[in-house]
Write a structure and sequence with these properties.
With 154 residues, the protein is an all-alpha fold. The chain contains seven helices and two strands, in the order H-H-E-E-H-H-H-H-H. The C terminus is likely disordered.
């Protein structure tokens, strides 16, 4: 099949296919007498694997490492499991950071609900954000109600 057909069936662009050939994720195809690339079913399966591996969070370099093992005739399951475990660990760290950020934003939103807008006199800063950040940075209580400290378990 030609590059356009391959791209359509694999769900990628022709530019992507050419790039994968350049970085050796996809072997150079045979050429027809007129110079057109000619791909077999194996190229389609490899592109689908690359696409699926990317959607699971693997980088192109990581995918290449799996493919190198396969090309060498080795099993790749343990290596792939190691890569996925690293991504799971990183995802867990990101989730923790996002939960902490959400808690802080929730506290600021609650602070905004409890502040009197007429006391906000600084023309350059909003007291909701400034007070919350300064209070936490200094490790001291604010002169305004702190929803984080006043909520049960907070």
């Amino acid at each position: 099949m030609r590059i356009g057909q391959l791209a359509e069936q694999a769900g990628v662009s022709t530019k992507t296919i050419r790039y994968y050939e350049t970085v050796k994720l996809l072997p150079e195809p045979e050429r027809t007498a007129s110079g057109y690339r000619s791909y077999d079913r194996g190229a389609l399966e490899r592109l689908r694997f690359i696409r699926d591996a990317q959607s699971s969070g693997l980088s192109l370099a990581e995918i290449a490492s799996v493919l190198e093992l396969k090309e060498a005739g080795a099993t790749s399951c343990h290596h792939t499991r190691t890569l996925l475990s690293r991504h799971l660990d990183e995802l867990d760290r990101q989730i923790e950071r996002l939960q902490e950020t959400r808690r802080k934003l929730g506290a600021m939103a609650e602070r905004a609900d409890n502040l009197d807008p007429s006391t906000c006199t600084d023309p350059n800063r909003c007291q909701v954000i400034t007070d919350a950040v300064e209070t936490r940075a200094a490790g001291r209580p604010s002169n305004r109600p702190d929803p984080v400290r006043s909520t049960p378990g907070g």
